[in-house]
Amino acid sequence: MQTVAVLSLKGGVGKTTVVLGLASAAMRRGVRTLVVDLDPQCNATSCLEPEETTKGLSDVLADPRPEVLREAVSGSSWGEEVDVLVGSEDAESHNGHHDEEHLARLTTALSELDGLIEDGELPYQLVLLDCPPSLGRLTRSALVAADRALLVTEPTIFAVSGVQRAFEAVQAERKSTNPKLQPLGVIVNRVRPRSHEHQFRIDELRDIFGPLVLPVALPDRLAVQQAQGACMPIHQWGTPGAREVALAFNLVLARTLRAGRQRRPDEDELEEDE
Of 8, 46, 71, 196, which alpha carbon lies 20 to 30 A from 271's? Predict the structure, then answer.
């Protein structure tokens, strides 16, 4: 099971869009996926339209027992390949605790996922953690639980600053609490290829992050908002713009799954250096 935290420390750059796009690509490929909605705005939950649950994320963080987790996870309207750990608007109340016990509760809950699998069902192959745009306990809990961190940005000056801070947070969490955590890459969202400003910012990102900037960027297409408004996977929207975005998410998913199957040599070297 590959667990990926999707984050930036600037709001509105499209973290939830990336989570939903990856879930859509995974569903298309037959990869069973759990979306964990850590953002108190609950946008991922709204778009996935899960069945009604008696518990939510806030309950799981307060009490990560398997029976609580079972009541907080629901199937989505997208299909049987995508489930949701339902978001909670009151999850913001958990953002103030930073002690080790609280940070580990999401990890504890996710370790019980296999117990939710019923006879004949495939286990979860991919867990996507949709983080809020702040470095409170919710985001830190995701970084403690994740194998990889996918950093999301737009090609604008403030978004570039936000992704730099997010990368620093990933590195800090790796050193302090989660040595297996590695950056999966930086994905640039809402790119307009003919914009000189966008190209300048992408070049700036490559100067800062080098090969961590994914070679595929997400184009700025109205189809993304249309599909989300209709609570549909981008792969099922069917317009030329949707197909262009869906292809990009297919490539990002392929990179994500490859990262889960094999360790990179430089990861071993990094651990030895520590």
Answer: 8
